[in-house]
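Feature request disguised as a bug report, sorry. It would help if multi-protein outputs had a clear separator. Right now it looks like this:
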Amino acid sequence: YGYANVAGDQTTSLAMRRDILFVAGFAHPPNVDAATWLVQDILPLVQLRHPQVHLHLVGSNPAASVQALAGPHVSVTGYVSDTELAGYYARCRVATAPLRFGGGMKGKVLESMCHGLPMVTTGVGVQGLAKAGFLPHADSAQALADAICILLDDDAHWCDISRASTAFIDAEYSKAALWRVLVEQLGAGRGRARKYIMIDG
């Protein structure tokens, strides 16, 4: 189906944005681990510089251990509708996915980029996204907290990452991009077939 750039220019709403967002299905063990690490180790480092920042853990099936993470500066929402989720993407300042294990490309990372919301993740989170070198990622709590704080503080950096994110989606994961890859592969397949016929004949 391809990913749609639904963001437009998000920089106009920047002054009204605040808080940190982690979107995930919390029946999945890597997401439970990430949420726990985020609340226990990363968020306190962010709060040293941003004591009022709030974290939203948004997604279905929060395990008891995830629900227990809720507190004055942490909300655990459970399932939300697509409309409600779009509201979080529009209001929050930074998305994060501090994944420490789990394979494959991460839809939550791509979805954040679709909305033009800068994402801070880990080496695991950027698997399969070699062309997204602009995406802040690190594998220590301190480095992740630093990357989040830069996006909370620096409007110019935020705008750069937001625009790079939506441009990446347009170039690599939009419907037009997927059609382009399909056409290229079909063309390559026809070329191989013609070569085989010529050799066989």
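(second protein starts here, but nothing in the output says so)
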Amino acid sequence: MTPDADAASSLRRADPFAPLTSDMLDVGDGFELYVESVGRAGGIPAIYLHGGPGSGCQPDHRRLFDPERLHAVLFDQRGCGRSRPKGSREHNTTAHLIADMEKIREKFGFERWIVVGGSWGATLALAYAQAHPERVSGIALRATFLGTRAEVVTGFTVRLPHFYPGLHEDFLSVLPPEERDRPVDAYWRRILDADPAVHGPAARAWHDTERILSEHKPARTRLDLASLNVWRALPATPFMEAHYFVNDSFMTANQLLQNAGRLAGIPGIIIQGRYDLLCPRRRSWKRTTSSTTAS
């Protein structure tokens, strides 16, 4: 055993969730993806898909997989996390991400694998499974999101004012009055604007509002409006979300429900938080009933 391999083996004995491998994978179009694997080489293959779009994998995500039974792969999607170039949205669509997953599967020599994802990761998991059902041995979803504009608009214009009316007022106040009748579209336009004076406050407000909506007991329930125009590092997720959602996640209308029949025969499980305001139970129920009807 080489010194590096011996050190890695010692680390895994101390931490069973330490990576088996970590590499940068060239997938073309100028992108290199950060890819790591955890668990037991030769174990049941699985892949984890992070949310956003635009976030990235975290060390805690490794703990979703039994290190004695599974050989799991985690990767940062195009433009996300440790992948390069960070934040790039060119050649970055759902179809590109599905193709990247196939390159990763081939790299590890897996014939089939369990596909695991939550929120946007659930969207990508379903899109991949419908494109390559023969490569999927099972699906595990958390907080099902179908990647539609309607889901995002409902979250920010119906559930937001219902549960957090003060936060909703703050969210609207970032926009000029003439843009407040369609606030989500206005936010996306501003976030994708090249001018930092335009996209900066919008990206920060979107990020902070979304974070409050995603937490069961948020630390605060109002925006710090004074800080939105003060320079601080911009989160990457609002830019990637705007890029995907303004393009309907690069899918046709209701694509994932219409193609549910392609999942027939693939075992699956959905785990859903009762109080999730961004990905409510209704979507998981719709996903389940559509699959049952299709099969």
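Even a blank line would do. Unrelated, but nice: The two ends are 50 Å apart (CA to CA).
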